[in-house]
Design goal:
This is Suppression of tumorigenicity 7. This protein is an all-alpha fold. It contains 24 helices and 2 strands. The protein has a two-stranded antiparallel ribbon with strand order 1-2.
Length: about 475
């Protein structure tokens, strides 16, 4: 045993001593070349298919052998292509919509400014509101009436105090005071033939009731308003109704509203898509476990929930980070851009509590939402269930959101896979070693010998222990083999 140990140690020392600096130069140069070729191939494959070749092979061939199931990429064989066709919009035009759940200027937005010193609304957003007011509530003869002329001037004012001075607009500091003024306006305008004014006041009164905790009363007011004015869909009162019904945890009525408005022929919104996902998740989230799903696969109900989450995330990919509290919320703007960061803020601001109330819903979202981006065809400009994501959303969101204290969320680009980053690091490291070895062969040879000796020291230690335990005759036979 002693002779064998001495012989192995001598052979190892002789091997290291026979290696010349040229060997280390050739070794590091070859390693750098091979890792560079792998990096070039990986980068080309990623640019073409949107994933790492090594990662795809490991997921597609090795994971099934180990019994794993990718729970985040369910089958989409039952997906209707009709919905994708019906929701196609022009990507060259980003239409800004009024936020159905916008806050109250005096009782909420202005109070935020007084407390923090920050302006929650951008001038662009407020200017859009002024244009909305002048479009809906004015006519050509308004200049003949002093009161209407004053209101037009007030809407155009940028400073809150100037607006209040001009027409006492936004004078109320609480929701109760605002409700009182709306009631006065409704009583004084009962004989007003302007439908837009009546709908606006009644809708805001319903929102006052919702904010003051009279949710059932708010639901009744909204239902009556939708029944009385069924053609005024531009106000999107059904989104206010959905939020109020979720607060009451009346999920059956929520499903009934969705059945009417989540239709192929109607435009989608984050509220519709994510509420549908929440209802599907509610059926399975309390018992969902990613480990169990990985072992046994997804059940039909779980598959439906995951597909609903993927659908919602593809429509607006910014929402999950707010629901999962990975990004801070701010006050929602008065206007939103569908599928943009502004819509995500407006949705999450009111609906985060409803997701938290459903046990396990956020956990299911956390486990599955990123799988959406592996399902969307690459490049990312293509779509899957909806029309390709508009490229103009970032520009519009920067106009709608206060970028001074909020970082605008950009459409989640596909991040570089780990194997590309690892190969790039390996290539750079070996290239640097090759350069140093070429410039300082003797010194690098010493470092290489010391590194190899240190690297193989644990192996030599184990070999020594094995040699001391095993009989010398058996060890001699093993070494011969």
């Amino acid at each position: 045993s002693v002779i064998t140990e001495s012989a192995s140690g001598t052979a190892w020392t002789m091997f290291l001593n026979t290696l010349t600096p040229k060997f280390y130069v050739a070794l590091t140069g070859t390693s750098s070349l091979i890792s560079g070729l792998i990096l070039i191939f990986e980068w080309w494959y990623f640019r073409k298919y949107g994933t790492s070749f090594i990662e795809q092979v490991s997921v597609s061939h090795l994971r099934p052998l180990l019994g794993g199931v990718d729970s985040s990429t369910p089958s989409t064989s039952n997906t209707s292509n009709g919905e994708a066709d019906s929701n196609r919009q022009s990507v060259s035009e980003c239409k800004v919509w009024r936020n159905p759940l916008n806050l109250f200027r005096g009782g909420e937005y202005n109070r935020y400014t007084w407390v923090t010193g920050r302006e929650p609304l951008t001038y662009y957003d407020m200017n859009l509101s002024a244009q909305d007011h002048q479009t809906f509530f004015t006519c050509d003869s308004d200049h003949l009436r002093p009161a209407d002329a004053i209101m037009q001037k007030a809407w155009r004012e940028r400073n809150p105090q100037a607006r209040i001075s001009a027409a006492h607009e936004e004078k109320t500091t609480t929701i109760m005071e605002g409700e009182g003024l709306f009631k006065e306006g409704l009583e004084g305008g009962q004989h007003n033939e302007d439908t837009n004014v009546l709908v606006y006041i009644k809708r805001r009164l319903a929102m006052c009731s919702r904010k003051l905790g009279r949710t059932r009363e708010a639901v009744k007011m909204m239902r009556d308003l939708m029944k009385e004015f069924p053609l005024l869909s531009m106000f999107n009162i059904h989104e206010n109704l959905l939020e109020s019904l979720l607060e009451l945890q009346n999920y059956a009525d929520v499903q009934a509203v969705l059945a009417k408005y989540d239709d192929i022929s109607l435009p989608k919104s984050a509220t519709i898509c994510y509420t549908a996902a929440l209802l599907k998740a509610r059926a399975v989230s309390d018992k969902f476990s990613p480990e169990a799903a990985s072992r046994r696969g997804l059940s039909t109900a779980e598959m439906n929930a995951v597909e609903a989450i993927h659908r919602a995330v593809e429509f607006n990919p910014h929402v999950p980070k707010y629901l999962l509290e990975m990004k801070s919320l701010i006050l929602p703007p008065e206007h939103i851009l569908k599928r943009g960061d502004s819509e995500a803020i407006a949705y999450a601001f009111f609906h985060l509590q409803h997701w938290k109330r459903v046990e396990g819903a956020l956990n299911l979202l956390h486990c599955t939402w990123e799988g959406t981006f592996r399902m969307i065809p690459y490049p990312l400009e293509k779509g899957h269930l909806f029309y390709p994501y508009p490229i103009c959303t970032e520009t519009a969101d920067r106009e709608l959101l206060p970028t001074v204290f909020h970082e605008v969320s950009v459409y989640p680009k596909k991040e570089l896979p780990f194997f590309i980053l690892f190969t790039a690091g390996l290539c750079s490291f070996t290239a640097m070693l090759a350069l140093l070895t070429h410039q300082f062969p003797e010194l690098m040879g010493v470092f290489a010998k010391a590194f190899l000796s240190t690297l193989f020291a644990p192996l030599n230690f184990i070999m020594e222990k094995v040699e001391s335990i095993l009989p010398s005759s058996l060890w001699h036979q093993l070494t011969r083999i």
